[in-house]
Amino acid sequence: MIIGIGGVSRSGKSTLANLLVTYFRKNGKKAIIFHQDDFVFPETQIPKIKNKTDWESPQSIDFEQYKEVIELFKTRFDVVIAEGLFAFYDDSINQLYDRKFHVKISKRTFLIRRAMDIRWGYEPTWFIDHVWLSFLKYGKPRKDLKGIVNVSGEDEFDMDKVIKSLDSPRIA
User: Which Gene3D superfamilies does the record match to this protein (predicted)?
Assistant: First the structure.
């Protein structure tokens, strides 16, 4: 099974991926997570916005390598979980997913969580707005993409709902 998890920055994608990999491993499955952030191009190849590296652009991700790794590891693991801001951007990768989860949070929650995240130091307000707008433009699942299960990242995940959706028939 290949699972895609998408959502805006700080929505809980990695948390959901970790909960799922733990669930599968406890149930005797070999499971692995791939984070889209591990497939970014070298910084010199990533577009800039106002002299700041635009990590929020799909042009920052090596989708070809990301897809190759997913396809390779689906032969070695029972469950492959691929998560990232642009999880639903590339159609050839969308076709690989057996299940798709979109982690939704409000803009207010995004702003609060992003303000608390100090990994990159001070981020100007315009850039934080850019992150949100880039998600709306490139990361939000298109309406024609079938089989998306929306889960709330506002509080704890409703894992009963998530697990139940894993048993439902695949929608391409």
Answer: P-loop containing nucleotide triphosphate hydrolases (3.40.50.300)
Q: What is the DSSP letter of 148?
A: E
Tell me which residue of 6, 107, 126, 108 sits closest to 58, measured CA to CA: 6
Within-domain flag for 133: yes
For the chain, helix, strand, coil in percent to 5 are 40, 20, 40
Exposed/middle/buried for residue 111 (C-beta within 10 Å: 0-12, 13-18, 19+): middle
Rounded to whole angstroms, how far apart are CA atoms 152 and 47? 31
Query: DSSP assignment, residue 61?
Result: B
Question: Per-residue pLDDT tens for 33-85?
Answer: 999 999 999 999 999 988 888 888 999 999 999 999 999 999 999 999 999 99
| Of 161, 169, 150, 48, nearest in space to 101 by CA | 150
For residue 81, the domain's CATH number is 3.40.50.300
Q: Sign of dihedral through CA atoms 19, 109, 89, 147?
A: positive
Structural domain contains residue 79: yes
